[in-house]
Design brief:
- There is one protein chain.
- By secondary structure, the protein is mainly alpha-helical.
- It contains 17 helices and two strands.
- The protein starts with a helix and ends in a 19-residue tail after the last helix.
- This is Trk family potassium uptake protein.
Length: 446
């Protein structure tokens, strides 16, 4: 019992460290964005707008109340990019990297916190994994920026093109969705590049690379093309990610963009299937989609990316566990399996609880915003799904929302970034019990 209590205390402390780290960076970022030097006009930004922007950046969401390109100065954009990088890589990853560089010893508590932050299977080798995360992040972002540079340098000049390339590469890999193309038309995202092959391919590749998780990248590094040697989690991530890109792309191609030229139709269909999980860029006007199309995007936003990645949402593995569990029930099988491996019952319970919490917060937040702002429920739900999924896609209502709605979105963005940790390490501790003080009695479900 004493050991169990210590374990629970360790988990709670780890969650508190991560949450306080995010809160501290958000508050510091808010204060910096409030400075006159952070805006192009030289005016001070209100605390709520600065807080909303900082939260969106640290939680790698992309919802904004002010257009990033036209409102914020180079200093302000730099602060936003730094917050995105910290939020994408993780507060704990940055802290441990600094400790390693400074020669400080990494204690068991720090290793445990890092394990939980990146969803690592064990504490062992956690410092090595941290170094790998730093290296792979920098490498991919530099490659992405280099590939984007020819297009942006051509369109915006050399130095601005370099800055735009770096900004969008980091924003895409961190699944943040912040963009600087609003210099042409505010809040336009990447709609001007809807048929540009390089921008489409690079941004989509960066989104997927950041969304599959650092442990999956470790499998790629260690086992290359030997897929059978990958962890079961990596196999599930690849399978679910592929399906969630291919199937929605088919729907968008045949039902949403059937009236556009074939080349553009292919690009926008594929891009709109990738970006909801959970990047926030868009190359098409989402307000023109049918309600079915918008609902599909809402579902994709809620699912999100994969564990230990820069993406948010419920995670692809949560969806896979729930679907596999349901199939096991349909087939009257006692256990849930993936690739010849049994899924523990505790994992299934965690997945079901995460799903329920996301759905409840998404629905309640949407209903409150719809009632408060007197807007259609579907529009409000799109916004709350984007916030809790840390996506950043919007139907254009975010800047015009009131105080209450903005606070709701801020809370949803924060929960969406640390929500899994909230559940697993604060609500459902790893307490193991051999029995219960309550007698068992069956209850009929379904």
């Amino acid at each position: 019992m004493q050991q169990t209590n210590r374990s629970r205390h360790r988990h709670m402390t780890s969650f508190q460290v991560i949450s306080l780290g995010f809160l501290s960076v958000i508050l510091l970022g808010s204060l910096l964005l409030m400075l006159p030097v952070a805006t192009k006009s030289g005016q001070c930004t209100s605390f709520l707008d600065a807080l909303f922007t900082a939260t969106s950046a640290v939680c790698v969401t992309g919802l904004v109340v002010n257009d990033t390109a036209t409102y914020w100065s180079l200093f302000g954009q730099g602060i936003i990019l730094l917050l995105i990088q910290i939020g994408g890589m993780g507060i704990v990853t940055i802290a441990i990297a600094i400790a390693v560089v400074s020669g400080r010893k990494i204690g068991l508590m720090q290793r445990s916190t890092m394990q939980e932050a990146i969803s690592a299977p064990t504490v062992g080798g956690i410092v090595r994994r941290t170094q790998f995360i730093i290296r792979i992040t920098i490498l991919i972002e530099i490659i992405g920026a280099a590939l984007l540079a020819p297009v942006f340098c051509r369109d915006f000049g050399f130095w601005k093109g370099i800055w735009y390339s770096l900004f969008h590469s980091i924003s895409a890999f961190c699944n943040a969705g912040f963009d600087l193309i609003g210099i042409r038309t505010p809040f336009s995202s990447l709609t001007f590049y809807s048929v540009q092959p390089i921008v489409n391919l690079v941004i989509m590749a960066l989104i997927v690379a950041g969304g599959i998780g650092f442990l999956t990248w470790e499998d790629i590094k260690n086992h290359k093309w030997h897929f059978k040697k990958y962890r079961m989690q990596s196999k599930v991530i690849f399978m679910v990610t592929g399906l969630l890109i291919f199937l929605p792309a088919l729907y968008f191609f045949y039902f949403e963009f059937s009236n556009v030229p074939l080349t553009e139709r292919v690009w926008v269909s594929l891009f709109q299937s990738v970006t909801p999980r959970t990047a926030g860029f868009n190359t098409a006007d989402l307000t023109l989609l049918s309600e079915v199309g918008q609902m599909l995007i809402i579902i994709l936003m809620l699912i999100g990316g994969s564990p230990g990645s820069t993406a948010g949402g419920m995670k692809t593995t949560t969806l896979a566990v729930l679907v596999s569990s349901a199939l096991s029930v349909f087939r009257k099988k006692e256990h849930t399996h993936f690739f010849g491996r049994q899924i523990p019952d505790g994992t299934i319970r965690n997945a079901a609880t995460i799903f329920l919490m996301y759905i409840v917060l998404f629905l309640v937040g949407g209903m409150v915003i719809s009632s408060t702002e007197d807007i259609p429920l579907m529009t409000a739900l799109f916004e709350t799904a984007s916030a809790i999924g840390t996506v950043g896609l919007s139907l254009g209502i975010t800047p015009d929302l009131g105080l209450v709605s903005h606070i709701i979105l801020i809370c949803l963005m924060f929960f969406g970034r640390v929500g899994g940790l909230t559940l697993i390490f604060a609500t459902i501790s790893e307490k193991k019990s051999n029995g219960s003080r309550y007698p068992q009695e069956k209850i009929t479900v379904g």
